[in-house]
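Example protein
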Amino acid sequence: MSSSSAAPAAKPPMRDALVEAAFRLFLERGYEQTTVDDIVALAGVGRRSFFRYFPSKEDVVFPDHERCLAEMTAFLAAGGEEHEPVRRVCDAVRMVLRMYAENPAFSVQRYRLTRKVPGLRAYELSVVWRYERAMAEYLRGRFAGRPDGTLRADVLAAAVAAAHNNALRSWLRSDGKGDADAAVDHALEYVRREFGQQDEPAPGTGRRTPARPGSAPEEGDGTRPEDVLVLVTRRDAPLWRVVQELETALDRA
């Protein structure tokens, strides 16, 4: 055998091959017109191989979210009392941004697809809700025993998710151009200004005390009137609707 013979090109992992085949067909035929049988035929594998990696056709559109959610949950679980909770959840949600930024072209392609297919948009909202729930569970533990601790945890988790998604979607709408990290940092800093200061130790006590609901910013605390966002919604509105309304309000701010 000649030493100059070129080695055959390595095949992509089967999971990646399935994702590549799926998106090629989605672009050529449309999402609704593409079946799992079409995907496995193009990838050259059987149906059993597809379902070994993806429970449904929708899951092939979001192939890395399970891994990212597991990493976020582990990161939050590893946080101790020395970690300021608002900063911790802001650091956690940046893992989602890094996942998108690993492959900007694919992320933009997926964003365009989800805008066209209502079913995928609903699926995406369910994924966002799972990230939000992971953050809320962590915050509930950190705020346990405080007045309105559960409420504060849920509202803060929704705000972090909304701020992150606002910046992420702006980046995706620009076809992945610009500094996504800077955009997300700016959005999360808004949340930290509004919520983080309430978790600072009370002077001379070393204890963290929440601000009184409805209390006005103290003079000289750096808060400007235009930094405050008031959202009015129905008491019985589902959390996803509250997040959607908050995202819309942030887009207009």
Remarks:
- The chain has two domains: 13-57, 62-200+227-252.
